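Q: For a teaching handout, I want to show students what a protein-ligand complex looks like in token form. Below are the inputs, and the small molecule is P-hydroxybenzoic acid. Please produce the holo structure.
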Amino acid sequence: MKTQVGIIGGGPSGLLLSQLLHRRGIDSVVLEKHTRAHVLARIRAGVLEQGFADLLRLAGCGDRMDREGEVHEGVNIAHGEDLHRVDLHGLTGGRTVMVYGQTELTRDLYEARDAMGGVVIHEAEDVQPHDLTSDAPYLTYRQGDELHRVECDFVVGADGFHGVSRKSIPADVLTEYEKVYPFGWLGVLSRTEPVAPELIYARHERGFALCSLRSRVLSRYYIQVPLTDRPGDWSDEAFWAELKRRLPSDVGRRLQTGPSIEKSIAPLRSFVAEPMRYGRLFLAGDAAHIVPPTGAKGLNSAGSDIQYLYHALLDHYERGDDSGLDSYSQKALARIWKAQRFSWWMTSMLHVFPDSPAYDRRLQETELDYLFSSEAGLRSLAENYVGLPY
Ligand code: APR
Ligand code: PHB
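A: Here is the structure, written as tokens, with P-hydroxybenzoic acid included.
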């Protein structure tokens, strides 16, 4: 098989890029290791920067998001009994975020790929990129006993943190930066009315908590837990009781509880791999970087890579201009590191770090105290939360 862009990974990054390229007449093949059902069973975050929402519209995939998603003009931060609203809209000259689940968005992307006749090959096993530093790279994969080969101009590694793409960059070329946090998030999805119309990020001496939502009838809540905890250690009752304790009491009293539909624990980590290009391989999304979820920047960071890569590939194919491809890694990483900084800052400010000295805890409290006394501080939070310019 021959194509222009060979894409490894059928998550949001790979699908979005292939959809955007197809609409401009550029051909791609997506190789995905798992079944579509498996990809769509993952429950992940749900806050989209305005720039990401615009990219989905450009890809022709924004209709259901615009119908069913919710535009949020603010978020809340709770500290003990205090609840402060951050007026995202007012502080950023009218910018907002869109609350729309990643699972729904991925479903929309798959449907759009189907409608255009896009090639997405599922259950592609042992995907391997080859000859990345030549001008004729290719991919191989297996389906059952059959070995297949995809010849292409460029390879895009959009195969997530555990994928094969990053690993195919020689160790002496790649630098990896990592920070692992000493706690995880226990998340619960429940068919209950959200406790508040906008998200609440809460710092409490018992640990961080987050009230998020998927719709008017579907809530997503998280609490900080030790890394040694397992989801089975937490009954629904224990989860609700702990969440309630970490919220201001008037919010806690309004909390609607119910059976959990999903319950899982995710560790928190920051990770960046540099460079994001090796020969004709371009990394995008989780394949190159991970953030702790506290700033809602995971999917949005992937979106910024796709935005740069899409325009770089357009310039190559439509104008013979390779400057975008040549500067991709540098440009993408500049924005990625800012999302890393914001995610680290939100995480550091809002979580309880086991064994942290009393001095550090007082500084954490002062950080919040400063934030809520300073319009400049709030504006900085708001500008990062809605998404820095591409
Ligand atoms: N071969 C083919 N496909 C692979 C391979 C492989 N060796 N390894 C992984 N994949 C597939 C995975 O099954 C998955 O569907 O690549 C896809 C990668 O998708 P994601 O992990 O969702 O990564 P990405 O598309 O970059 O999405 C952005 O940012 O913080 C996150 O939650 C956010 O998942 C979102 C991500
Ligand atoms: C979520 O809804 O799952 C969510 C929202 C905001 C975050 C993290 C997760 O910062």
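A: Two things your students might notice: The first helix runs from residue 12 to 23. The two ends are 34 Å apart (CA to CA).
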